[in-house]
């Protein structure tokens, strides 16, 4: 550590303290943290005998004496105004509430877990929250650290089997109900159904977050009052005063089994170690080493000593040293070390390391290297994160307005709402009646809604303005969304198919109870969808295509692939509801369990067959296929163009659907040297427009152009010229 | 690049209109079936199957194809075996992991497709060539993989409610087998399309974190940087991560009978799969959406800026440049030129500039008021072409653009001087000789607009 300091900081820096001094402070910090851990272990033992509030009162009162003596808050500094006094007492009130919660958590979880959960410095917690919630607060390392931190907490919550404790709490849980706070706590815990040690974990974690918020909120106050230490001294004194009456009330109710003499020593030690020495040394260390470094080292020291103490605390020698052997008879079973705790400790250490690491060089949108084709490759994160953040409310309002602007997206949105409402009713009913089938069906519906959400998004997105990157506009998104929806349905069909094949071999017993009602409800919802989308998804059900006539009749093709995808999805859902109704009727009345897989097979095939046209159409559009249905018109148009005055031949003609209704074209024309380019372009434009093409780009070339090109040839591939020179007039005008 | 894709175009478009007609029958049939939503497979099925068999036999002659087919059989067998084991063990995580080998099947099929594509020439139906098939196939592959992962997540949620028992008997063997199969196929098959997408798409979150970790690792052991930096193949990475997750869950189930770990592992593998596939799907999806690739924007800007300094060029409009297939751009642009500019010369110059970047290019030269310009004899070849249009407007408004005579001496950057333009009478604009150079686009455009309205 000392080396590190020396390397980074030159000797003549303003930053004071050579490496040896830093080492001294680090040593002090480590020792004070060890003492703090000892204090907390002591406190845990004491708390088994003394009520929390009484304990807090005693230690706060004990701490306030030396603090007041050292800081002299009343004599030094300027006098506080009334308002400041009010704020200080508010600060003290919140502080003592948090303190009581902390000690209560300690009594529930044991010292080791309390230290793991609670002894994080503000720096770390703020870095954690920043990485997790603001999203763009730095490198992926921070995010990773945040996730590791979260994993550690979750491990402590879920994977830490503190079996002995659970037994104990069951045995004497009624004896522990001692005051209002515990009453409320146990009530909530019972409602959720956790053991109190898990409740303690949650409580401590919340207290930690509150404590960090409290600390940062009190920064301004401490400046006003004249220093953090003065505030601390005053606040501690007021806390003791606040806690006093409560302590008397609570202690009158329960009598303490041992004499005060035995307890006095551990209480004094706790006051000294946790509330005074640690406070001062941390403040000093933060001044002399960087705050993040202090936080990191402090956390390591704390966790390390907690582990060490947890391993040795119940050893008879330790007990003798801490004079606890006199209380040994009363203190019962203790918390045990589990692998979950060890893992969590390691994760906390790792998270501390990552989160305190100065992740200065955030390489977002950094240049990574070249791909095989020599294209530069960039890492992502740039564009997505550069958008300015907006208020969520305004964002939602804008989005809703956009959605409701257009009839298509409006339809999808309303149907989505109906669907979601049905799903939630179903799930709530499932939870209330404790039916797994209903809940899982609800999840299934929710899953289906994702296709609707995608359709909605695509439908909104397709109306966005064209940008530099999306130079044709976003309307192609609808085609892509239709394609993805098609793939989605295909996957669903395949899954249903394989599942029903599986069931065909070993048909399971099906509980038709309530199935009928649910599927009828689903059918009704989906029928609404079908009637809503039937109009918009277009004319494909109608009397086929009438495009052979050419001319202007191409608008009939203009149905929306996105809406078609959504429609097919709804159709598939309807089919499956119908299938479920039929099969459940058959099972109920005839007992044919085999009906269910057969129905599913049938449904899967239907879904699969219905999706193929959509997939074909969308993939043809995405592949820039020449539109088949207007090909004859295009051909006749090209014939017309060839008949124009001056046009000799054409090449490179590309015609493609941009969306399912918009056709674009590009064309190269070779013309006689005396023709007028602009005239030809305008004539071609109008001919193509008649043929149903929305936009055409024409490159008009003359012999002169080829001469120019070959003159420029140095940078250009000569092959192209040769070819274009000799093979250019492919389609000789039929004169 | 440009030459490669232009030549086939030229050759193939010599296929004349008759051939177009013969292709028409097939197209119509698919299109009809495409528009009937419920009952497809009317006429197209047979021809599709037949043509498929025909195409398959055409590529079967290649050695490469045989190798891929053998791998495909191996993979299908392995995947089938894995699915049987998944069913035996009842493990969701293994199923999620097996989807990776399913992905490999699709990637092998993509490989076959790209071999087929290489043999194809652009046809009337697919005038841009068949390279886009690879893009679509890769997109579909990555999307299917993500959808499969989505299904895994859904099933896992159902399992959270009711956790079944997992049998660990075949679990570890299954994991090792799937890992070996996937790694073998990832590294033994040279799937050009997929490799391009992996190289060109942005990093997945998994890769980003790995890069970040390995960067700090390489501080300690510099030798590793060759292996770990700049970024690891995402498919290998997900194989490692998924295998690791599964092994942990196996240990947990074995030692503690902690069955939920299987579901947790399944969800995390599914998330990793989605994370890995998402950037690839975005990359290919953007190609399918006809967008300008972001990394080409700078280059295109530079070229266009250069081209806009050419003599006579006023502005570019309707610039559409988009990725046709992996590594080739197509585009069209309209160039607005001065009325007296030589269109063919400008066209040749602009084409020459852009053709280095954009392989399939169409440039439309655009003139304001060309009907009037035609009454002048301004053609570069010196020939005055007969025109039906005569100028009959009012006398020219004074607010015209820069004088044409000013530009006579203007040498275009390529060194070829602009042609001498004999002006016939009218003398408009001569009075504004003091306006300096001729490239003030904005001002020029506006004055034209004003003139039009007046006219």
Automatic annotation (TrEMBL), chain A:
Keywords: Antiport, Golgi apparatus, Ion transport, Membrane, Metal-binding, Transmembrane, Transmembrane helix, Transport, Zinc, Zinc transport
Location(s), subcellular: Cytoplasmic vesicle, COPII-coated vesicle membrane; Cytoplasmic vesicle, Secretory vesicle membrane; Golgi apparatus, Golgi stack membrane; Golgi apparatus, trans-Golgi network membrane
Gene Ontology molecular function: antiporter activity; metal ion binding; zinc ion transmembrane transporter activity
Highest taxon listed in the record's lineage: Eukaryota
Domain Cation efflux protein transmembrane, residue spans: 412-623
The species this protein was found in: Dreissena polymorpha (Zebra mussel)
Membrane topology: Multi-pass membrane protein
GO biological process: intracellular zinc ion homeostasis; zinc ion import into Golgi lumen
Quaternary structure and interacting proteins, as annotated: Heterodimer with SLC30A6/ZNT6; form a functional zinc ion transmembrane transporter.
Family statement drawn from the similarity comment of this UniProt entry: Belongs to the cation diffusion facilitator (CDF) transporter (TC 2.A.4) family. SLC30A subfamily.
Name of this chain's protein: Proton-coupled zinc antiporter SLC30A5
Transmembrane segments: 21-43, 49-70, 91-109, 141-159, 200-218, 230-248, 260-281, 297-316, 336-356, 412-432, 479-496, 516-533, 566-587, 593-615
GO cellular component terms, semicolon-separated: ER to Golgi transport vesicle membrane; Golgi cisterna membrane
Recorded catalytic activity of this chain's protein: Zn(2+)(in) + 2 H(+)(out) = Zn(2+)(out) + 2 H(+)(in)
Automatic annotation (TrEMBL), chain B:
TM regions (residue ranges): 68-85, 97-117, 129-151, 171-189, 235-253, 265-289
Pfam (any one): Cation_efflux
Aminoacyl-tRNA synthetase listed as a keyword: no
Protein name: Cation efflux protein transmembrane domain-containing protein
Domain Cation efflux protein transmembrane: from-to ranges: 68-289
Predominant place of localization: Golgi
Source organism of this protein record: Dreissena polymorpha
Sequence ranges of Polar residues compositional bias: 413-423
Compositional bias (Gly residues): 426-437
Assembly and oligomerization: Heterodimer with SLC30A5; form a functional zinc ion transmembrane transporter.
UniProt-recorded Gene Ontology molecular function terms: monoatomic cation transmembrane transporter activity
Ranges of biased composition (kind: Basic residues): 438-455
GO cellular component: Golgi apparatus; membrane
GO biological process: zinc ion transport
Membrane topology note: Multi-pass membrane protein
Record's subcellular location: Golgi apparatus, trans-Golgi network membrane
Disordered: region residues: 396-455
């Amino acid at each position: 550590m000392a080396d590190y300091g020396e390397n980074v900081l030159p000797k003549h820096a303003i930053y004071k303290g050579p490496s040896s001094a830093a080492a001294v402070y680090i040593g002090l910090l480590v020792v004070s943290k060890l003492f703090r851990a000892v204090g907390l272990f002591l406190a845990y033992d004491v708390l088994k005998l003394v009520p929390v509030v009484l304990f807090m009162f005693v230690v706060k009162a004990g701490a306030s004496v030396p603090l007041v003596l050292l800081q002299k808050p009343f004599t030094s500094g300027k006098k506080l105004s009334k308002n400041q006094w009010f704020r200080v007492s508010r600060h003290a009130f919140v502080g003592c509430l948090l303190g009581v919660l902390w000690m209560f958590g300690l009594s529930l979880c044991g010292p080791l877990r309390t230290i793991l959960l609670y002894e994080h410095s503000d720096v770390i917690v703020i870095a954690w929250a920043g990485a997790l919630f603001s999203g763009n607060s730095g490198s992926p390392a921070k995010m990773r650290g945040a996730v590791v931190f979260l994993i550690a907490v979750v491990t402590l919550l879920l994977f830490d089997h503190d079996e002995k404790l659970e037994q104990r709490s069951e045995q004497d849980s009624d004896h522990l109900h001692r005051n209002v706070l515990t009453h409320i706590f146990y009530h909530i815990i019972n409602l959720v159904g956790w053991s109190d040690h898990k409740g303690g974990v949650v409580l401590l974690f919340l207290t930690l977050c509150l404590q960090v918020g409290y600390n940062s909120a009190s920064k301004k106050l401490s400046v006003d009052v004249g220093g953090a230490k003065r505030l601390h001294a005053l606040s501690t004194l007021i806390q003791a005063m606040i806690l006093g009456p409560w302590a008397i009330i609570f202690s009158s109710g329960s009598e303490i089994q041992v004499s005060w003499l035995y307890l006095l020593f551990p209480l004094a030690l706790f006051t000294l170690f946790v509330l005074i020495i640690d406070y001062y040394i941390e403040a000093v260390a933060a001044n002399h080493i960087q705050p993040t470094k202090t936080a990191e080292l402090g956390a390591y020291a704390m966790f390390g000593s907690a582990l060490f103490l947890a391993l040795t605390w119940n050893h008879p020698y330790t007990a003798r040293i801490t004079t606890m052997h006199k209380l040994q008879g009363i203190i019962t079973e203790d918390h045990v070390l589990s692998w979950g705790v060890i893992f969590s400790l390691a994760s906390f250490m790792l998270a501390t390391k990552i989160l305190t690491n100065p992740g200065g060089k955030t390489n977002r949108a950094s240049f990574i290297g070249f791909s095989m084709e020599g294209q530069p490759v960039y890492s992502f994160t740039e564009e997505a994160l550069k958008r300015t953040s907006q208020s969520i409310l305004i964002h939602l309002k804008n989005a809703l307005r956009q959605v409701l602007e257009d009839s298509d997206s409006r339809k999808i949105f309303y149907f989505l709402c109906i669907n979601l409402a049905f799903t939630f009713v179903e799930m709530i009913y499932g939870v209330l009646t404790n039916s797994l089938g209903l809940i899982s069906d609800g999840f299934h519906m929710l899953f289906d809604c994702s296709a609707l959400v995608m359709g909605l998004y695509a439908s909104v997105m397709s109306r966005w303005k064209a940008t530099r990157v999306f130079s044709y506009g976003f309307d192609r998104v609808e085609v892509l969304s239709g394609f993805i929806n098609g793939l989605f349905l295909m996957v669903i069909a395949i899954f249903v198919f394989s599942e029903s094949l599986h069931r065909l071999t070993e048909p399971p017993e099906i509980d038709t109870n309530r199935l009928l009602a649910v599927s009828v409800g689903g059918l009704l919802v989906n029928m609404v969808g079908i009637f809503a989308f039937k109009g918009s998804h277009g004319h494909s059900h109608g009397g086929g295509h009438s495009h052979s006539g050419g001319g202007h009749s191409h608008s009939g093709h203009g149905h929306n692939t996105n809406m078609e995808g959504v429609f097919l999805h709804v159709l598939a859902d309807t089919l499956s509801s119908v299938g479920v109704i039929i099969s459940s009727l058959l099972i109920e009345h005839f007992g044919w369990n085999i009906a269910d897989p057969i129905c599913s097979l049938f449904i899967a095939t239907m879904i699969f067959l219905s999706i193929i046209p959509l997939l074909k159409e969308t993939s043809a559009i995405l592949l820039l296929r020449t539109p088949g249905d207007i090909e004859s018109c295009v051909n006749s148009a090209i014939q017309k163009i060839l008949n124009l005055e001056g046009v000799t031949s054409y090449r490179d003609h590309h015609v493609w659907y941009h969306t399912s209704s918009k056709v674009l074209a590009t064309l190269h024309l070779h013309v006689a040297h005396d023709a007028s380019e602009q005239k030809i372009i305008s004539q071609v434009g109008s001919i193509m427009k008649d043929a149903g093409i929305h936009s055409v780009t024409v490159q008009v070339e003359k012999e002169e152009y080829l001469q120019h090109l070959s003159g420029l040839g140095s940078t250009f591939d000569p092959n192209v010229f040769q070819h274009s020179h000799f093979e250019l007039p492919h389609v000789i005008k039929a004169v | 690049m440009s030459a490669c894709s232009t030549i086939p175009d030229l050759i193939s478009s010599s296929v004349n209109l008759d051939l177009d007609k013969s292709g028409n029958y097939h197209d119509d049939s698919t299109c009809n079936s495409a528009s009937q939503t419920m009952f497809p497979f009317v006429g197209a099925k047979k021809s599709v199957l037949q043509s498929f068999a025909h195409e398959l036999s055409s590529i079967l002659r290649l050695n490469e194809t045989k190798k891929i087919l053998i791998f495909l059989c191996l993979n299908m067998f392995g995947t089938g075996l894995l699915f049987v084991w998944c069913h035996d063990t009842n493990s969701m995580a293994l199923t999620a992991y097996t989807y990776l080998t399913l992905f490999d099947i699709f990637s092998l099929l993509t490989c076959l497709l790209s071999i087929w594509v290489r043999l194809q020439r652009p046809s009337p139906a697919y005038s841009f060539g068949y390279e886009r098939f690879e893009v679509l196939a890769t997109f579909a592959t990555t999307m299917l993989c993500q959808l499969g992962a989505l299904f895994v997540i859904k099933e896992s949620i159902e399992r959270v409610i009711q956790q079944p028992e997992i049998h660990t008997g075949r679990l570890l063997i299954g994991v090792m087998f799937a890992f070996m199969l996937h790694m073998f196929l990832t590294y033994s098959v040279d799937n050009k399309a997929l490799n391009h997408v992996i190289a060109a798409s942005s990093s997945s979150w998994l890769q980003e974190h790995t890069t970040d970790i390995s960067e700090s690792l390489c501080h300690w052991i510099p030798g590793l940087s060759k292996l770990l930096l700049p970024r690891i193949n995402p498919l290998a990475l997900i194989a490692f991560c998924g295998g690791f997750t599964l092994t942990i869950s196996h240990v947990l189930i074995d030692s503690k009978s902690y069955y939920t770990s299987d579901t947790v592992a399944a969800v995390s593998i599914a998330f990793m799969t989605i994370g890995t596939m998402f950037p690839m799907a975005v990359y290919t999806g953007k190609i399918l959406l006809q967008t300008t690739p972001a990394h080409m924007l700078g280059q295109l800007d530079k070229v266009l800026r250069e081209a806009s300094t050419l003599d006579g060029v006023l502005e570019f409009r309707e610039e559409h440049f988009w990725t046709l297939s992996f590594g080739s751009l197509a585009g069209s642009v309209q160039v607005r030129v001065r009325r007296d500019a030589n269109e063919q010369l400008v066209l040749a110059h602009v084409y020459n500039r852009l053709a280095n970047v954009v392989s399939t290019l169409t440039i439309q030269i655009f003139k304001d008021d060309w009907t009037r310009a035609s009454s002048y004899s301004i053609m570069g070849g010196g020939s005055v072409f007969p025109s039906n249009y005569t100028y009959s407007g009012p006398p020219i408004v004074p607010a015209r653009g820069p004088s044409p005579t000013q530009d006579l001496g203007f040498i275009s950057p390529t060194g070829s001087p602009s042609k001498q333009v004999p002006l016939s009478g009218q003398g408009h604009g001569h009075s504004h000789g003091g306006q300096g150079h001729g490239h003030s686009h904005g001002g020029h455009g506006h004055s034209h607009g004003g003139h039009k309205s007046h006219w």
